[in-house]
Each structure stands twice: as C-alpha cells, then as structure tokens.
Amino acid sequence: MIESSLVLLAGVAAGFLNAIGGGGTFVALPALVAFGLPPVTANAVSRVALVPGAAASAWVSRRQLSPVGPTSTKALTAISVIGGGVGAGLLLVLPASSFDVAVPWLLAFATVVLAFGRHLSRALSSALGRSVGMGSRAVLIGQFFLAVYGGYFGGAVGIMMMALWSIGLGLDAAVSNPMRITQLAAMYLSATALFLIASDALSAPLPLTAMLVGAVGGGFAGAHLARRLPAWQLRGILLATAVITSVLYFLRG
Least CB-packed of 4, 134, 171, 204 within 10 Å? Predict the structure, then answer.
C-alpha cells in the first residue's frame, strides 16, 4: 500500500512536470523501478501511464495553441504520432544502452539552446541581414527524430522540442508551451498503443493504475498553472527543469 501511494505521488509529480516544463519521465521511471519493475517494463508502463495526463494537459491548453513556424498543426501532430510509434518499436527490439551515452550530451545541448536560442536566432538574423528560420520540411524532419526519441525513452523530449523551435524559429518558450504539451501527448499516444499490444506493460496493473491516476491529476493541475504563470516565470521553470534534468543525467551516467 505504501509503495502504491508513492507511485501515485510520483505520477502526480510526473504529470505536473510534463505540463509545466517537461522531465516527468525522470520522476516516473525511477519510482517504477523502485517498485520492482524491470527497467524496460518500467519504461513502457510509465509511457502508458503518462499519456492520459499529457492528454488532460493538452485539453486544458487547446485554446492557446500557436503554429510552429510555417508548419501546420495537423502535419506536426501526424509526424509526432508516427515518430512516437517508431521509437516505441525500437524500444521493443533494441537494447536501451544505445542511447545511454548520447542522452546527457543531448540534454546539455538542448539546455544551452533553450537558454540562448532566441538570442542566437536574432544575432544570426542581424549578421545575415535577413530572417533566420527553418522551413516546414526541416521542422517536420527535426520533429520526427524527436518523436522517435520520445517513443523510445522520452526523457526531457519536451525540453528538446523547445530547444529546436527556439533556435530554428526563434519561438518564445512560454508561448509555444501549449503546443509542446500537445505534441508530447501525440508521441505518447502512438507509443502507448504499441506498448499495450506488444509489451508486458499490463503485467503490472497496480503501479500502472496508480501512476495513471496521479498523472491525470498532476497534468490537469499543471496545465492550469502554466496558463496563469507570467511568461518570464514559465521560461524560468522550463530552463530550471532543463538544467536539473541535465545534471541528474550526467550524475546518473
């Protein structure tokens, strides 16, 4: 009972973090491993459990969606769904160690870009005398690879999305946060469908249910809070989350 309560609280924290700035996987995965699940099973269970919370956050934020550069929301979401499914398939057939070395450096790079991306984009525009921005095809290609990572593991994929949009399009992290939440839900949706069919995620119904319930509550509350926070505070939370998750990953490695 105590372990189930802790998993429930971890689900609340994970759903809340995903809605505010990302990094929910860093809470959900260790909690499930501590419950006694094997790492790969815990990864699948966390993905299945977090998707309703991500969907709740996306629903709350639906009226604040803004386009990602020249790319349509429908095309971006379709790519996120496809990439998430591909990543989930890779998790089921490949060893997880293939990402272990690269992930901390990817997170560190994403954190730096998230912090300075808009400034760098403006500096490049001034130096070149024209606006710097990714085309629709480049945005979709970048989103596909992020979605594959999101389906495979997903740790801080929301931070990486913000970094890509910041450096490539000069988007403000606070303004694009609702779209980040929506794309996160799309990645998790297709990954969840595959995990329910092909993984052993349903072999652990108690921790799955506890984390799912907690994540829905946390995601709903976090999305409402994100709507009310001033833009500078939300940017600060996003950046702080990025820094903390990057440090934790280096320490973990």
Answer: 4
Cβ–Cβ under 8 Å, residues 20 and 241: yes
* 78, 98, 144, 152 from 183: Cα distances, Å: 9, 24, 11, 15
Q: Which DSSP letter does residue 68 get?
A: B
Residues 218/55, Cβ–Cβ less than 8 Å: no
Q: 22 is written with which tokens?
A: 């990302």
Burial profile 141-164: b = 16 or more Cβ within 10 angstroms, e = fewer = ebbbebbbbbbbbbbbbbbbbbbb
Pair 179, 65: CB distance under 8 Å = yes
As beta bridge partners, residue 78 has none
Q: Give pLDDT tens digits for 196-237.
A: 888 888 888 888 999 999 999 988 888 888 778 776 777 777
Every domain of the chain and the residues it spans: 2-252
What b/e string do you get for 124-134 counting C-beta neighbours within 10 Å, with b at 16 or more? Answer: eeeeeeeebbb
Q: Write out pLDDT tens, residues 122-158.
A: 676 666 555 556 788 989 999 999 999 888 877 778 8
* pTM score above 0.70: yes
